[in-house]
């Protein structure tokens, strides 16, 4: 039990430090935006490159990938339908809310929890691959189009191909698939920069919590509640059904995909909402609720399926 909670303790401390920094205004009024841009343009690409470059290509494209993809697409689609058709939300807010419902924290929470709960830190790799090479390009292309007000096939291609997060992910995957062994003179500097990503991102998130109240933004409470419910309850159930009855995976593989589906909303979604100034309250509150709420869900999943 203590080891299981270690990952959450690490995350909680970093967020608490950020909250304190925001409260005493140590870094000034522009700290949140500066840290957000630093994470998006520099630290995240290095982190994603190093994680994917060192992942086993066989794990990246294992049977865990289609199960996780089906579960994620199902809840993303469900949120988008409700938000657009029933609530008439703008496209940008719908994208952020849908990502909050279906994009999991497979890196800074998923990797340590996978190690403690499942015995290996490699299991989140297929989810990282799916999110960064499929969901992220599509989502960022939509957000780019919405915020820029102009679009064309060439412009969309250029902005997608030059997005630093996508570039880092693609290069890391290429290194893994081709089996390239990068020398220490390349990997160690990249790892040094990559290691700053998670704490800076969590501190930035903690700063954003100061002066805010969970579910305190009028007009977006039901968006947050819908995204949180889909993330914490619906997505793990879909993953279990698909893995157990559609793909016939082993008991251990079923546990893996359910645990991955029950992970909280990725902080990257909050980073995207900061970057494009869209739906920040939705992503912020959903990250908070799912990070706290996933603890009993994960423990229940491991007890029932493990």
Description:
By secondary structure, this protein is an all-alpha fold. It has a single domain (2-305), classed as Na+/H+ antiporter like fold (Up-down Bundle). Helices cover 78% and strands 0% of the residues. The two termini are 14 Å apart. The model has no long low-confidence stretch (mean pLDDT 85).
Helix content: over 70%
Query: Cα-atom Rg, whole angstroms?
Result: 18 Å
Strand content: under 5%
**Number of extended strands:** 0
Second-tier CATH architecture: Up-down Bundle
> Largest sheet, if any?
none
Q: Choose one word for the global shape.
A: globular
What is the helix tally? Answer: 15
Mean pLDDT: 85
What structural category characterises the helix and strand content?
Answer: mainly alpha
The CATH class designation is Mainly Alpha
Task: List segments where confidence is low: pLDDT < 50 over at least 5 consecutive residues.
Answer: none
SSE layout and pairings?
Blueprint: H1 2-24, H2 31-53, H3 57-60, H4 64-86, H5 91-102, H6 110-118, H7 125-148, H8 153-161, H9 164-178, H10 184-194, H11 197-209, H12 221-246, H13 251-261, H14 267-276, H15 280-305
């Amino acid at each position: 039990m203590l080891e299981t909670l270690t990952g959450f303790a690490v995350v909680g401390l970093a967020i608490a430090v950020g909250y304190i920094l925001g409260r005493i205004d140590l870094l000034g009024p522009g700290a949140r935006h500066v840290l957000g841009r630093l994470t998006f343009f520099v630290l995240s690409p290095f982190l994603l490159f190093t994680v994917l470059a060192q992942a086993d290509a066989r794990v990246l494209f294992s049977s865990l990938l289609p199960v996780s993809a089906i579960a994620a697409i199902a809840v993303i689609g469900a949120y988008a339908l409700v938000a657009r058709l029933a609530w008439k939300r703008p496209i940008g807010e719908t994208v952020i809310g849908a990502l909050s419902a279906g994009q999991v924290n497979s890196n800074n929470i998923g990797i340590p929890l996978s190690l403690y709960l499942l015995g290996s830190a490699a299991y989140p790799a297929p989810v990282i691959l799916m999110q960064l090479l499929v969901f992220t390009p599509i989502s960022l292309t939509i957000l780019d189009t919405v915020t820029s007000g102009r679009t064309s096939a060439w412009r969309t291609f250029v902005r997608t191909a030059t997005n630093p997060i996508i570039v880092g992910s693609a290069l890391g995957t290429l290194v893994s698939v081709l089996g390239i062994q990068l020398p220490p003179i390349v990997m160690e500097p990249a790892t040094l920069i990559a290691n700053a990503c998670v704490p800076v991102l969590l501190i930035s998130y903690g700063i954003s919590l100061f002066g805010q109240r969970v579910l305190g933004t009028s007009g977006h409470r039901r968006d947050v509640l819908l995204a949180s419910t889909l993330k914490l309850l619906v997505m793990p159930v879909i993953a279990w059904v698909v893995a157990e009855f559609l793909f016939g995976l082993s008991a251990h593989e079923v546990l893996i995909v359910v645990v991955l589906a029950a992970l909280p909303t990725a902080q990257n979604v909050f980073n995207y909402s900061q970057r494009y100034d869209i739906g920040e309250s939705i992503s912020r509150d959903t990250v908070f609720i799912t990070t706290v709420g996933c603890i009993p869900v994960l423990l229940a999943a491991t007890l029932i399926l493990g």
